[in-house]
Amino acid sequence: MRAPLAFLLFSLTALAQDARTVTEPSIPPSCAVLLANIGRAGASIAPQDETKPDTRRIQTALDQCPPGHAVLLRRSNPRTDAFLSGPLDLRRGVVLVVERGAYLYASRNPRDYDRQPGACGVIRPTGGGCRALINGENVSDSGVMGDGAIDGRGGETLLGGQPTWWNLADQARQGGFQNNPRLIVLTHCDNFVLYRITLMNSPNFHVSYTHGNGFTAWGVKIWCPERARNTDGIDPGNSTNVTIAHCYIHTGDDHVAIKAGPGALTTRMSIVHNHFYTGHGMSIGSETAGGASAILVSDLSIDGADNGLRIKSAVTRGGLVHDVTYEDVCIRDTEFPIAMDTGYTAFTPPANAEGSLIPQFRDITLRNVRIEGEGTVLLHGIDAGHRLNILFDNVVFADPSKIRTSARHAEIKVKCADTFNLRTAGDDVSLQTIPGEAAPNTCPAKFVPFPPDR
């Protein structure tokens, strides 16, 4: 393990909507060092080792560790480098560290995750049948850190001859809810930190953070295949003061999805200096009934995704989303590079369904954004009384002939009109130009490969 970082690379407060002064975290001293007892077999562990869980000894170490310290998982030697675990519960002030060269694998036994007997690993009329691999509830100042990897094994066959977690998710497309465990679920966990860890192959969302004040993800790598359904990267919701920085996310669903269901505020979030690959984009929604505001997305590349910059909602779950700024963003080969969608239908009735939770998106700013390749831009307000309000400031499409546009009920403002080359006509669409000096964003060195050492 590298020594704790005693220096600060730089502060993000000059850019951030997060009200905190966010700097690079450091790894606390260890209270316990646990050595691996099993080894990897290829990209996973050997079948004979599936009966050798480390759950109890990891949990005992977490329970006995004093606040301000860490439980460290370390390989014994290059061939004995793996830990196997069912659900773990974090403790206040205690950090779980997976050291470089060590791997924490999730159990493939659905019974380990049951909230009620037989509730996990099945399709039911309702979800929520599984605990996560790593759980935090009402624990402040905790975290998951290290240069090792945590693998949810979503693509491996479940014990008992059942299909993989991802197969189960695909089967649920025909009806019902998949009951698959998430990798990390955090509720009411103030001042939580993810640092340098690699998260892989979650059966469901990789990270869910709700009802907290203070969440930092710094230098995190998240990877799973494009086909893996509902494998969101990081989903903060109903929380305040969130920073996601210097992360690499390659997944099968939203890279980041900011949730704003009814309840606590969803505000003051900074998503800065990140790289996204396959996935469903930098999203807000689809739950917006509680309102979302003061969100900054800066210095982002999106390469080969289904969606780019997306706000999604519908009349059954909508609300006010405002004061959102995207700046210094480069998007390439993305099907919907910009999607302001008030008729999102993936988990809701059709867009013309009756509902009283009206989505409204206003004070949305795109500044210094460049889009390369073919795609469709959606600019959809819901009606004349709730128009989309959006500003394009130095937004350039490298080849506008390859861009299709769908616009309605939208109030569009354009700054640096000489460089703006998007056709925006549509039902109840207005366009206003504002003087400004263009500074074209050529996206130099913005698109980089996913780091190889995952």
Summarize the structure in words.
With 454 residues, the chain is mainly beta. The protein contains two helices and 34 strands. The strands form four sheets. The chain has a 25-stranded parallel beta sheet that branches. A five-stranded parallel beta sheet has the order 6-10-14-17-20. Strands 2-3 form a two-stranded antiparallel sheet. Strand 2 and strand 3 (44-45) form a beta hairpin. The longest helix is centred in the first third of the chain and has 10 residues, at 55-64.
Key structural traits:
disordered N terminus; 41% strand; single chain; mainly beta; 454 residues; 25-stranded parallel sheet
Number of E strands: 34
Which runs of at least 5 residues are low in confidence (pLDDT < 50)? 1-16, 348-352
CATH class: Mainly Beta
Q: Can you tell me the number of structural domains? A: 1
CATH topology: Pectate Lyase C-like
State the major sheet: 25 strands, parallel
End-to-end Cα distance = 16 Å
Q: Give the DSSP E fraction (strand runs of 2 or more residues).
A: 35-45%
Proportion in helices: under 10%
- CATH superfamily, by name, is Single-stranded right-handed beta-helix, Pectin lyase-like
**How confident is the prediction overall: mean pLDDT?**
92
Alpha-beta content class: mainly beta
Globular, elongated, flat, extended or rod-shaped: what is the shape? globular
Distinct helical segment count = 2
- CATH architecture verdict: 3 Solenoid
Q: Radius of gyration over alpha carbons?
A: 22 Å
